[in-house]
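Notes continue from the previous slide.

Worked example: a multi-chain complex. Inputs as given:
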Amino acid sequence: MILKRNTSPTALYVHIPFCAKKCCYCDFNSIVSNQKMIDQYLDGIDKELRMLKSRFLFHTVYIGGGTPSLLSENQLEKLLDSICRSVLASEIKEYTVEANPGSLTMNKIGLFKESLVNRISLGVQSFQDKQLQFLGRIHSGNDARNTFHLLRDAGFKNINIDLIFGCPNQSPDDWKRDLEIAVELNPEHISTYALTYEEGTALTRDLKSRVVRKLDEYIELAMYKTSINYLRLNGYNHYEISNFAKTGYECLHNCIYWKNAEYIGVGVGAYSFVNGVRTSNEKDVFVYMSKVDENKNTTSFREQLTPGQYASETIIMSLRLRQGISNTDFYERFGYKIEDQFGDTIRKLTKDGLIHYDERLTLTEKGLFVADTVMTEFL
Amino acid sequence: MPTERIRNFCIIAHIDHGKSTLADRLLEKTDTITSREFRNQMLDDMDLERERGITIKASAVALKTVKDGKEYTLNLIDTPGHVDFNYEVSRSLGACEGALLLVDASQGVEAQTVANTYLAMEHNLTIIPVISKIDLPQSRPHDVLTEMEKTLGTAPEETLMVSAKTGQGIAEILDAVIERIPPPKGDPNVPLKALIFDSVYDEYRGVIIYLRIFDGSLKVGDEIYMIKTGRSFKVEEVGVFKPKMVVKECLATGEVGYCIANIKSIHNVKVGDTVTHKKNRTAEALPGYRQPIPMVYCGIYPANNADFHVLREALERLSLNDSSFTFEPETSQALGFGFRCGFLGLLHMEIIQERLERESNINIVQTAPNVTYEIVKTNNEVIRVDNPEKVPPLHEIEEFREPIVRASFVLPSEYVGTIMQFAEGRRGRYKSTEYLSERRAILTYELPLSEIIFDFFDKMKSATRGYGTLDYDLIGYESADLVKLDILVSGKRVDALSTIVHRKDTEIKGRKLVKKLKSEISRHLFEVVLQAAVGSKIIARETIRPIAKNVTAKCYGGDITRKRKLLEKQKEGKKRMKSIGNVEIPQKAFLSVLSVDE
């Protein structure tokens, strides 16, 4: 089999693991920490970035967390400088920073504006305080609105709003109201995530001890359908399972993941994918910092994908995109057509109305709702 | 060793009354093994036996001891304690002149104690009553002494008190074995007559026969002849167990030991057969034993059809060491190619199944067990049915017969009512109640075997807080109003889920079974309908609602590996399922009928 080498990773991810408070549903790599530790950590990031310098030409940068906006102005300045030195400004098409309404100030917004940052992803989750409290967020619905306006006033023309649906006791009307407020604000991009019960989170412990009850699957489905219909009606394209954007504002960085293309991750627990090899940095922030400090390799996990795994992953990830994957692209990368390997699967799933297959392989709407079940068939 | 200084004995006891521990103490006391070699419960060979704390196969060991300046050889033949392995008890008894009858000082006389004591009496063995575990705080040796006198007819003044834990009474046991049990009677000068009381298969040496020499002697190079099977072999090695095999030149009259004779398969040896010399044969054979017949059958299938041959080899390997386990190829529409396997009882079935999975590393699907039925067809032909699938259509059945057992429960008197109610609910016929003492009773019922093979034992145990015990004997077949209960999954009949039930129970069982199946089968993308039916009449129905939403909300760079692995795991899980039509049924579902609640 011919495995075409991608030219080079074009996406850079930088992880900031610090939070003011851990949310009950969150299983991301995040910790509550002090200033000194953050300073040390940023030294580490700087060092890791210097080692990459000039090896890659990045088109997208994404600073995620954690809560990047939690950093002090000085710390932010340092981080943005480190990144600035590692990229070629003229090549950058999209530069996103994740921010929480509670921690974003005018000065920080100013710093973003002065650097290359051109997209802000705002962790709103809900505009209703009842929901925010349940989720353990430290901001209010009003904070979210105000922060959004600050960003607009500062001139940000590409803003994403993250929302969560499917909380216990959330009604379909509550959810509809959140969507309405979001649409009123008129961001370029909206992500709607179904609340997920991840192992090891406070939320899952509450579920197991029956402090909370999961929302009925059918209600959750109804909410999901509401998002799709309502946002579509208001000019947002449903381009990925959980993501909606106005035309031309699809998140370039995240599309790299969904196309299973190459990327570089910097910081604790960050993943990189280069030449069919996926690696991850140390997941423990102290171990990570001491390794960077001692100039040791920070990799703690490495997997070389087999050609079969590479192809399966590519199909599975691409199916998250509503446009799916084109057979031409697949052939380019793997040297055979999807049907050559998954002919029976494609026939079966097509018959069941779950996928559509011609030049492109895509999920039907029916398939979209049970995407995970469909995806197992492509392993 | 002259025969008057040999004693052959066994220990009979209920499970967990301390038989193996006592055996261990006897081994230690006589220096048969050094403490360095000591693994607790020396006589239990298989890991499974050790884990479950029960003895499955009989085993033998020669103990040397000195009394009044004379050396004696005491051959201890171990016996299994579980009801499923009763036939193994009787074959051990046949090789002995005496038995230690062991009763737990706190538990008292149990169902198997009674059954095995009667067996020992039938074999004319000298019985040495022993009360064990007298060191435990809850022990009540004097009550137990009375119980034993009353039910087993043992003399209180002859009863020994021991604690295998502290060693108290162990020396007295050795003395009693020498003083009370008669030496073997045989004649060394007549032709060889030896009893095969067990055999095991060894990968390197072939079959190892366990022998008791009644007359004559056996040495290396002898040509032996087995009277029942008519087969001849040349002896390569003889020896005794100490407890490891120790080679000897000759096994003399009265001795217990082993013989290796280049025998390739355990099926060439019949336990209970008489061994004699080929040239100089003994005139009459020993009485031998009744071949145990499987009481319980189930289907065993490879989860993956391609593993059929691997499964066959694994079953063959197991049967090398267990002649009471039978298997025959069969096919199921639902499960493909597999085997119908016969077992002595439910414990035997569980042990075989566990060994299969442990030793052969294949995923198996097992169907619910059933007993063997007899059906008289309208053309007067009588057929035996060991698989519900073989039940002929209703109009061809003249009479449906099922096996009936006599079950005796030994239990604290306060539970008599509970167990009676329980047995009545299982179509039991009350026979009698006898009181062992004010506090304990023997309750006797006649019950259909099918009613006790599933969960009866566990249920009885929990209903009596662990104090009740059960023993049963097959007494014959009786006509009953039985029907085949079928299960349909999305309209398709699944043969492997059919069971035979009493007509009055069909509705309740059908309802519970489909409910149970509903909990075992995961949701599909479409609705799955489960139905229970007798003939063409649907008696119960459940539906499994389809998956509405199953989609991971977030998946970014770091999640991709995790996500792929998660999906791979789901796919792996699916592989272990059987696909009926397009419904994936997990292995556990085929055993649903076992755990349908009362």
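Summary box: Chain B has 13 helices and 34 strands. The longest strand of chain B covers residues 397-412.
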